[in-house]
UniProtKB/TrEMBL annotation:
This is Large ribosomal subunit protein uL3m. Pfam families: Ribosomal_L3. GO terms for molecular function: structural constituent of ribosome. Its main location: mitochondrion. Residues 313-324 have a biased composition (Basic and acidic residues). It is found in: Mitochondrion. GO terms for biological process: translation. Keywords: Mitochondrion, Ribonucleoprotein, Ribosomal protein, Transit peptide. Belongs to the universal ribosomal protein uL3 family. Residues 28-52, 310-332 are annotated as: Disordered. The gene is MRPL9. It comes from Orbilia blumenaviensis. PANTHER family: 50S RIBOSOMAL PROTEIN L3, LARGE RIBOSOMAL SUBUNIT PROTEIN UL3M. InterPro entries: Ribosomal_uL3, Ribosomal_uL3_bac/org-type, Ribosomal_uL3_CS, Transl_B-barrel_sf.
């Protein structure tokens, strides 16, 4: 082999194009980013809700316990968080003040209960909700219609001037028709909700109704002192007035609810309940009082309260069972 051939072979090897093995990154179709064995973000799989099967379906018995649906009437009643007890109807007698041992003055309102009786009960099976109908006051039978006279006769009560319903949580708050509710239905220190109709002010301007400051009193302003002024433009350059715009209009005469009002005093002889602060409505106006929805129920010993505190599903001890059996045997 000549020296020329020996020299050409390394030159040919050098002139050949080199095949480079470039490692291209692998892509995950789901993530759409370079695949990595050490993920930086820990992703937890989403738990899909289990399908709810109706009784009578394939493989489901008629007595199968189904979960409570969120859009069912039963779930709606649970979300309402109604009080366990019924409320009462009272009249606003006026305001006064109470002084404590330190001399602190606390304004309060006196509410008097006038012959408040239970009329009837509303059950969920028949009416769709739990409620107690209560009546208060007295009314001349001549001024009562015959259907209402029949209703009062069935309830075994005299004709009442005011009749209202109070929503309750379940059947434990139902009461016997004709039961009289006095001021001792509440206790000192508990929280209640008050509902009444506010005073009607008639047609009022923007300054009285919404607290507007008004326009300037001088500097060229003529007869435009308490006027509202421009209402501003709407869509289309002022083609209409947006709903809810604060303007002059009818003021008051609306139902007002005051939550979490503290009871300062209870007088069962005068049948009065003294609450802290002011109460909407005029003097001698109708005010409803009920346990606060956003507070715990009061610790008043009643039959429904005992049933609520004691768990009916709790097993009775053996000694208690033996004593009960002995009592029934002795009675027999």
């Amino acid at each position: 082999m000549s020296a020329v051939t020996t020299c050409r072979q390394p030159l040919l090897l050098l002139l050949r194009p080199l095949k480079r093995t470039v490692s291209t990154p692998k892509f995950n179709k789901d993530a759409r980013r370079p695949f990595s064995t050490t993920p930086t973000v820990q992703v937890t799989p989403r738990k899909l809700p289990r399908p709810t099967l109706l009784p009578g379906a394939a493989g489901v018995s008629d007595t199968f316990a189904l979960p409570l649906l969120q859009n069912s009437p039963a779930a709606a009643l649970i979300r309402r968080r109604d009080p366990f007890r019924t409320g009462v109807i009272a009249r606003k007698k006026g305001m006064t003040a109470l002084f404590d041992a330190k001399g602190t003055r606390t304004p309060c309102t006196i509410l008097q209960i006038d012959r408040c009786q239970v009329m009837t009960n509303k059950t969920r099976q028949e009416h769709g909700y739990w409620a107690v109908q209560v009546g208060a006051g007295e009314r001349n039978p001549k001024n009562v219609t015959k259907p209402m006279l029949g209703h009062f006769a069935v309830c075994e009560t005299s004709p009442k001037q005011v009749v209202k319903e109070f929503r309750i949580r379940d059947e434990r708050g139902l009461m016997k028709p004709g039961s009289l509710i006095n001021a001792n239905w509440f206790r000192k220190g508990q929280l209640v909700d008050l509902r009444a109709n506010s005073k009607g002010k008639g047609f009022a301007g923007g300054m009285k109704r919404h607290g507007f400051s008004g326009q300037p009193a001088s500097h060229g302003n003529s007869l435009m002192h308490r006027a509202m002024g421009s209402a501003g433009q709407s869509q289309g350059g002022g083609s209409r007035v947006l709903p809810g715009k604060r303007m002059a209009g009818r003021m008051g005469g609306e139902r007002v609810t005051i939550s979490l009002v503290k009871v300062l005093d209870v007088n069962n002889q005068l049948n009065t309940v003294v609450v802290k602060g002011c109460v909407p409505g005029p003097i001698d106006g109708i005010v409803t009082i009920q346990d606060a929805r956003l507070s715990h129920p009061p610790g008043i010993s009643t039959s429904y309260r005992k049933a609520m505190v004691n768990n009916p599903n709790k097993k009775e001890p053996k000694e208690g069972k033996k004593a009960a059996e002995a009592t029934t045997a002795a009675a027999a």
